[in-house]
Amino acid sequence: MDNSSFTHIRKVLARNKKLYLEYNEFRKKMFRELSPETGEIILYLLPWLLSINDPACPGYVEAIDRTFRVYGIEDSQEIRAREDAFRKMFSVRDGAILQNPDAEHYLIEGLYTIGSVGAASQTPGSDCDIWVCFNKKDFNRKAWEQINQKLNLIKDWMDMHLNMPVYFFISDVTEIRMNRFGSVDEESSGSAQQNTLKEEFYRTCIV
To answer: What is the pLDDT of residue 31?
Structure first.
């Protein structure tokens, strides 16, 4: 393949990425407009809660091995603009996530909503399925137990404060790359069934 072919492919990929990111922002806007409080919490507060470990916040895990961090969160202008409000919400004094981006942590490689949220099919009865993607080989047994504990604690808080049911699917990126879609946690639940999860993910996901 010559250089002109590579140049063409790069241009196509750059165009497609730009269009997808614009569409993703449109879906996030729709989610916030259709469910203002829930949209804010899921799109912005959830990544923040997963990336800190403060006793005042939902998701606090005592004696944590090392903190978790959602990929790229320190560069998110949307979350950066809301962080002071999140800290005040839970009376957090220290430990802003943006202060130590290079600190050792377990990486959450992606968060994705799946299903009707942010689409024309969203209704007051819609739920929200969320994929939490990580590389299983980078997590030891203790980290695996602690991310499950953290997600369960955050879900308990969401169950108390949100009208929309929220379900987490913990997913290994290696399995996804091998075209095996489905939760690696037998206790995860949600409205999507494993045999339709791949199609639903690609058709409906919001980053």
So the answer is: 94
What strands, in cross-sheet order, belong to the sheet with 68-70?
68-70, 106-114, 128-134, 166-172
Helix (H, G, I), strand (E, B) or coil at 172: strand
Rg of the chain over Cα atoms, rounded to whole angstroms, equals: 18
Q: What does the pLDDT look like over 173-203, one tens digit per residue?
A: 988 887 776 554 444 444 445 556 778 888 8
Q: Across the strands, what pairs with 106?
A: 68
pLDDT exceeds cutoff 80 at 98: no
CA dist 119 and 123 (Å) reads 9
Residue 159: domain span: 3-204
Rounded-to-integer distance, Cα 25 and Cα 31, Å = 10
Under 8 Å between Cβ of 129 and 113? yes
3-state secondary structure of 114: strand
pLDDT at 197: 72
**pLDDT tens, position by position, 17-33:** 999 999 999 999 999 99
Residues contacting 174, CB < 8 A, separation 6+? 135, 136, 137
With a cut of 80, say whether residue 117 has pLDDT above it: yes
Q: Which two tokens stand for residue 151?
A: 């997600």
Q: Which amino acid is at 162?
A: L
As for how many domains the chain has, the answer is: 1
